[in-house]
Amino acid sequence: MRKDRMDYSRLVLFNLFLFCSCAASPPNFVLLFADDLGFGDLGSYGHPTSITPNLDRMAAEGLRFTDFYCTSPVCSPSRASLLTGRYQTRSGVYPGVFYPGSRGGLPLNETTIAEVLKPLGYATAVVGKWHLGVGANGTYLPTKQGFDQYLGIPYSHDMGPCRNLTCFPPNIKCFGVCDMGTVFVPLIHNEDIKQQPANFLDLERAYSDFAVDFITTSVKKNQPFFLYYPADHTHYPQYAGVGAAGRSLRGPFGDALLELDTTIGNLLATLEKTGVINNTLIFFTADNGPELMRMSRGGNAGPLKCGKGTTYEGGMREPAIAYWPGTIKPGVTHELASTLDVLPTFASLAGAKLPQVMLDGVDMTELLIHQEKSKRETMMFYPVSPSEQYGLFAVRMGKYKAHFYTHGATHSATTPDKDCPASAVLTAHDPPLLFDLEVDPSENYPLSSKERPDLQAVLEQIKKSKLDFEASMVFGRSEISKGADPNLAPCCNPQCSLRPSCCHC
What we know:
The chain is 26% helix and 16% strand. It is built from 11 helices and 15 strands.
């Protein structure tokens, strides 16, 4: 064949490829986000008695991450980073978490994944635990943050009287300590309270039905969709409905995990039934590490050190699975990645514009589809209560992690490790504690640059990365420090006078 004809043929094929790519439907996204789930809690991550067949299937047929991180060892800031692709210090979602009467919330000028996708015609929905603020007249609810629909509870289910949780069987007293003196945890649909207190025995079924209907309706309308499912499970105190209670060898925690997995199975079945599973990226991870103070009811960090509330690996490294049949090949990646990377990745795959702000996330597309090297070179670790005075507590670069400060947490009490509980006070480390996470993921054996002079260059590189990052960080005004007003706590009878008991409907 003559060269000019060959070049012409290639040009035709290339243009045909471009036409087909443009004509194809944009991908759908399902983002699954567990609560207080440890690195070692899933069957696919080594737990011997967890029943997680659907997540295990996703891990076997998709891409399983071994080095995936959240941005905070507690809930609200971690969720803010997931949805915005920015460290919580930029958005002001710190220190700690939002409560029922919090005045603040995720600032409305922050751009969420939903707001990135909406201009492309995506249907968007949240089902589950929001925990990014409610505010006066529902100022900070999901429907004000780019989501078309919302069904769920606005904060953690222990942020209300314990009778709000009905255990199964009904004659068994609910095990756990919840907040007293505030309103019952409500179930909110869009911006209206549908039920107060929420019926937790039926809640997961309601979530599943809502999500299934959302997917089915979107497919019928030939509309791409983004479903965000931040689960209530497996936050303490655990609960489970009739289909899961008593079925796990792990007790209440295992039952809650099984119920979560069952809902995920329902979503996978719906995607298959509607014929869109091959055009849908399903991404699973969790907000922070396990609450070890609850012992067997608190989750498992596997080989990692400490858990929730700390910047050790157990508080910040999470299971993560990317599942997209026909597009993502089965495998395991040891590349560095983070919840920060979800927004730029979804935007890239959908062909959406990124928000014109400082983003901390990187695009994972090549890592997911071709399992190439990650664009993420470092991971920065802020504590529960970050401040400009102390800055970063730790930095990971490649396989090395350096701790500049360490601090235990009440959430990580009860373990034999003296570094985990709150009695392990704030300690500065100069030189920083340095660990090789490939050979020592438990952070048991700090390396010495005196014994290994080659490590001095590593430390200097990490220190420079820390200084450069901190120089780029502009702390947003703290939303959580705005305080709380009991009258802002969601109440289905807002004009009633016998709060909180009258908030019942």
